[in-house]
Amino acid sequence: MEIVLIIIISVLAVAIVWDVLFLLPTRWLKVERVKWDSKAKKKVIQISDLHIKHLRVPITTLKQLIEDEQPDYVFLTGDFIDKNEKEFPKLERFLTMIQQTGVETYAVLGNHDRYIEEVHKLEDVLRKYQVHLLKNEYVEKEDLFIVGIDDFCQGRHDIKRSFQFSNPLNKDILVLTHDPDIVDDLKESYTMLVSGHLHGKQVNVPFLFKVADMGRLAKRGIYKGQHVHSNGTFYISKGIGQSRWNIRFMVRSEVTIHELS
User: Fold this and answer.
1) Which of 82, 97, 146, 242 has its Cα between 20 and 30 A from that of 208?
2) In this predicted structure, what is the pLDDT of residue 53?
3) Angle at CA 213, nearest 5°, toward 207 and 216?
4) Among 22, 89, 26, which residue's Cα sits nearest to residue 242?
5) What is the pLDDT of residues 177-210, one digit of tens each?
6) What is the DSSP string of 164-227?
């Protein structure tokens, strides 16, 4: 009887430790606030790397955050799904929430979004909920440009086309893209560039990106947060969902509030 009790206690202890170390960080949302020097007085909420199949942060929590913050824009920086169309119904519940907030929303695709053969089906779902999908395109506003560059790691980007505009009034330029590695190839100046892709490592152990090839920046130890580059300042979100394994270690799910002032 004592042995059975010891086994039960041991199993419960392992389960609790596993939950605290690997599962709790997927549910325990961290709201990051980032300041930017800008002429435009704007607030942008960035949600990156949904991987909607593995999203553990309640959609109602995200809706409350958006309604409380009252941003000017929502930027969705790719990887809406993990790998297939079966995830669309849950994605549509998320997009319904975004639409209900009434906030103007812009998006780019990530590498996982093209794991499905007919990516236009995902694009149609996004547009169905009034999400402005930018594929190497820009939108000019009264006081700024919003530029969406398609995924770099799959070679879908077209920098020249994305920046095919003149800016005589020197308006701020806000760029959204998925893979931050594109900053090494950008010659154009920008005020703010936001990205995701790297999940803040997701399993944050030393030297992971020395072994797993996640691109040039990751190898240099740049995989989250705000950084200054030669032509502007960029930010890498830790993302809100998980890919492959639905766990996080030493890094929480993130939504980012960018305050331009």
Assistant:
1) 82
2) 95
3) 90
4) 26
5) 999 999 999 999 999 999 999 999 999 998 888 8
6) -S--TT--EEEEE-S-GGGGGT--S--SEEEE-SSGGGSB--TTHHHHS---HHHHTT--SEEE
- Structure-block tokens of residue 142: 């009264």
- What token pair was written down for 144? 């700024």
Helices (H), the chain: 2-18, 24-27, 59-69, 88-101, 119-128, 159-162, 208-211, 216-219
**Residue with the two structure tokens 């119904």:** 89
77-113: pLDDT as tens digits? 999 999 889 999 999 999 999 999 999 999 999 999 9
Provide the β-strand partners of residue 256: 32, 46
Domains in the chain, CATH or no CATH each: 2-260 (3.60.21)
pTM exceeding 0.85 = yes
